[in-house]
Amino acid sequence: MSRSKILVKAIEAVVLVFLCFFIFGPMLALVLWSVAMKWFWPHVLPQEIGLDYWAQALGLQKSLAIGAVSITDAFQTSIVIAVLVVVLAMLIAVPAGYVLAKYRIPFRGAILFLFLMPQAFPQQPVFVNLLFSFNKIGLTSTIHGVVLIHLMVSLVFAVWISSAAFKGIPPELEEAARSVGASRLRAFFQITLPLAAPGLLASAVFVFLTSLDEFTGTFFIGLPFISTLPMLLYSSSGYNLQFASVIAIVLLIPSILFMVIIERFLKAEYIGGVGV
Amino acid sequence: MPGLHLVGLLKRFGKTTAVNKVNLEIEDGEIMTLLGPSGCGKTTTLRCIAGFLIPDEGEIYLGDQSMTDLPPEKRGIGFVFQNYALWPHMTVFDNLSFGLRLRRVPRSKIKSRVDETLALVRLSGFAERYPRQLSGGQQQRIALARALVIQPRVLLLDEPLSNLDAQLREEMRFEIRELQKNLGITAVYVTHDQAEALVLSDRIAVMNNGIITQIGTPEQIYNQPNNRFVAGFIGLSSFVDGIVTGLDTARAYATVTTSDEVAIRVPAGSMALNQEVTLAIRPEHITLISDTSAEVPPDANLLEGEVIRIAYLGDVIDYRIQVGGWTLRVHTDTDTHLRPKDKVQLMIPAERINLISPDL
Lengths: 276, 360
What we know:
The complex is a heterodimer of chains A (276) and B (360). Chain A has 276 residues and is mainly α. Chain A has two domains: 3-50, no CATH class; 72-274, Orthogonal Bundle (MetI-like fold), CATH 1.10.3720. Chain A is built from twelve helices and two strands. In chain A, strands 1-2 form a two-stranded antiparallel sheet. The two termini of chain A are 43 Å apart. With 360 residues, chain B is α+β, with helices and mostly antiparallel strands. Chain B folds into two domains: 4-230, 3-Layer(aba) Sandwich (Rossmann fold); 236-356, CATH 2.40.50.140. A six-stranded mixed sheet of chain B has the order 6-7-8-3-9-10, sandwiched between helices. A five-stranded antiparallel sheet of chain B has the order 13-12-11-14-20. In chain B, strand 12 (253-257) and strand 13 form a beta hairpin. Chain B is elongated, with a radius of gyration of 25 Å. Chain B starts with a strand and ends with a strand. The interface between A and B is medium-sized, with 18 and 24 residues.
C-alpha cells in the first residue's frame, strides 16, 4: 500500500469517527438520560440506572415518586392525527401534484404559491389568528382542528414533492399506454402511479414526520384537551430530563423506521428523478 | 387494411400555427414519411393522427371511418416513440402483453402472440428482461414490438432511430421497411433525416412551416424538387435566378438568362417567355471539363468558371466554382486536383436542371 493511500484511509477513518460522534453522540446521551435514576455532577456516567422512567411512561407502573406519566394516550393521539393527516394530504397532493405537473393550467404559479402561503408568515401570528376563527366554529381542542392545522403546515411539501414525482415521469409512458388501448384512468393507475410511487411515498413519509413533530400549531389549537407527544415533551423538558429523553426516543422510532423503509424502496435513481 | 386520410388538418399552439391545413392521403399498406426540419409540424401532425393532440380544424379518416373525435385508445394505432417509452417497471413480456390484456385476449393466446412478435423483431428469449437491461437498439425493437403486437390498423413512428448510433440506425432503416412490407401495414414515419426518408419510404411528404411543400416518391423528391426548400433540404443544390428569354418548343428547351447575361438551356416545362425562374442544380450533375476535346452532348450547357473553394469530403471533392456573379457547387471524384483560382469549364446536361418557382 502506497503512502498516499494510507493517508487517505487515515483521513477517512478520522472523518468516520467524527461523523459517528455527531450522529450517535446525542442519541447515546438520550439513551443514558432515559435510564439514569441518579446522575449528579461531576460524574461522567449515571450513578444509578434503571428502567423506572420507561415503565412509568409506557404505563406499566404507577409510582408517585417517579416524575413521569403514561405517554400511551398522547402517543395514540399523535399516531391517529398523523395517519389522518397523511391520508388527507395525499388525497389532495396526488391529484394536485399530477395536474400541476402534467397540464399547463392557468394560474399554475399562483396555485403553487397559495400552498406556500401558510409558510410565508411567522407561525405564531398565523396560529393565533386561526385560534380566533377556529374558536368561532368550535374546532379548537378537537382532533379535527389539529388535523387541519397539521395539514396546513405539511400540504405545501406534499404537493411540491408529488408534483416533482409526476414531473419526473416522461409523458410518453402514459401516451404509449393510451396508444395500446388503455383509458386515461387505467394509464394513470397502471403506469404513472406505480412509477411515481417512490416519490409519493417520500412525500407521505415527510407529511407523517412533520405531523408527528408539529408543536406550535398543536399548542395553540389542540391544548388543553388534545395533547400529542411533543406537548408532553415540552412540558417535561428542562426539569425532568429522564422523562423528556424517553419521549424523545419514542418520537425518534418512527423516523428511524421510515428511514429503513425509504432505504428499502427508494432507489437512488428514483430520488434522482424526483428533483425536477 | 384501410388507408389514412388527413383533410384540412390545422393545429395551433397559442399564436403559432404548427400545422396549417394539411391534406394527405396515405394508401393502404404504404409507408409515408413526413420529412422536415424541427418545428416544421411533422411531429404535431403525427400526434394528431395518434389522438394525443386534438386538431383545431380538419378531419382524420381511416378508410371511411372518421377518427377525429376518437380518444387514442379507440383508434387502433401503434405508436413508436423517439425515446422508446418502454415501461421501466414491467418486463418485456408485460410491456408487450399490456395491450393484449386490455383487449381481453385469452391468456394462452397472449403468450403465443408475444412470442411471435418478439421473434419478428429478432429478440426471442428477452421476455423476462427489464427495459433497463437492454441496449438502445434492443429497446427500440421492443418498442416496435409493443406497437405491433396489438395488430394496429396504422403504425406511427416518431423519429424512432434518432437516439441510436449511426451504424445501427442504418441497419434499422432496412429492418423497419422490411417489417412494414411483410406485415402490409399502413405506416407514417416522421424524421428529419433525409437519408432515412429516402431509404425506407414509399412516398415522402416534405414539410416546412406547417405545410406540405411536396409529396412524391424518393426519386421524385430528389430528382424533381419543385421548390427551393425541397431542393435545398434534400441533398445539395445550387440555385441560379434568371428570366426565360427564349423558347424552343420544337425541341422542348427554353433558354434562361441570368442577370449577368449567362444563357442556360433548360427543359421547357410549362414556362412562359419573360417568366422569372430559379434553377436548382445538383452538385453531382455537373461535370468539370479540363480537356476541351472531351465529348460534349449536344444538349449540354458549357459554362466558364473559376474555383474559389475546395473541400475534401473523403468520397468526393466539393468545389465551389464562381460562374459570373453566382457560385455552383460541384462534386467530383477524388482524382481531380484543381487549385483555387484555376479556370475550369463546366458541363451541365439540360435535362438535369430543375426549375422551381422562386416565390416558394
